[in-house]
Design a protein that fits this description.
single chain; alpha/beta; 6-stranded mixed β-sheet; 16 strands; 26% helix; hydrolase; hydrolase activity; Carbon-nitrogen family hydrolase; C-N_Hydrolase_sf
């Protein structure tokens, strides 16, 4: 079973939702025109890290984003891992992922669990508290957000359900991009799953982002690297590879969780 995946490596405009929604729309439509099964957006693509402007630019209850992604998924018959967006719920703000199937149905949402103090998330955002496991395009999957990558115990908590693809939308700065690659490869190997990671390019007031959105196979091999330019790029994964990897080394069967604290 093969799936074609598109990575939307966007140059997000700080605090400019109108332009960013247009960029996302163009990326999704381009992916659909290339007969893609799943398109993946980066983290906080609606606003960037305009955290001090959230009261003006965050999406109220995620309503605009949900309608936007649902309509594009249905119109273009494409599955969407909607990266993440800044959302306001009541008096709180969240970094939230929405996942839509090709019929326009919301099949999963997720609030970022681990907030990144180095980019002041902990000062402006509320942390999530739930796992994010779902089936998309017939494939058992899970998605996380950026800093979650540094917590392998959290990834394993969800991956134990039997996930075949792990999604990581991010705004990962260029000065730590080597760590991005190494940790993504590690998450693929230790969970015997494909990893699909969509990063951004461009700059904001304090950070530079150089992309390198990646697709990685269960042996940790990089199938696709999107490079350092704004683009929609593509990779095909062969899910039959999973059985070949998991059969000889059944790491989930051999776990001893009673010893883990």
């Amino acid at each position: 079973m093969r799936r074609k995946i598109a990575l939307a490596q966007l140059n997000i405009q700080l605090g400019n939702p109108a332009e960013n929604y247009q960029k996302a729309k163009q990326a999704i439509e381009e992916a659909a025109n290339h007969h893609t099964d799943i398109v993946v957006l980066p983290e906080m693509w609606n606003t960037g890290y305009a955290l001090d402007q959230l009261s003006e630019v965050a999406d109220e209850n995620g309503q605009k984003t949900q309608q936007f992604l649902s309509e594009l998924a249905l119109k273009n018959q494409i599955n969407i891992v909607g990266g993440s967006v800044a959302v306001r719920r009541g008096h709180s703000f969240f970094n939230t992922t929405y996942v839509y199937d090709q019929k326009g149905n919301l099949i999963s949402s997720y609030d970022k669990v681990h907030l990144f103090g180095l980019m002041n998330e902990d000062q402006y955002l509320e942390a999530g508290h739930k796992e994010n496991y779902f089936k998309l395009a017939g494939v058992p999957s899970a998605s996380f957000i950026c800093y979650d990558l540094r917590f392998p115990e959290w990834i394993r908590t969800v991956a134990r359900y039997g996930t075949d693809i792990l999604y990581f939308p991010a705004e990962w700065p260029s000065n730590r991009i080597k760590q991005w690659q190494i940790m993504l490869q590690s998450r693929a190997i230790e969970n015997q799953a494909f990893v699909v990671a969509a990063n951004r390019v461009g700059t904001d007031l304090e950070n530079s982002f150089n992309g390198h959105s990646l697709v990685i196979d269960p042996l940790g091999r990089i199938i696709h690297d999107a490079g350092e330019v704004e683009q929609v790029s593509y990779a095909v994964i062969d899910l039959a590879q999973l059985a070949q990897v998991r059969g000889p080394i059944p790491v989930f069967k051999d776990r001893r969780p009673s010893l883990y604290h």
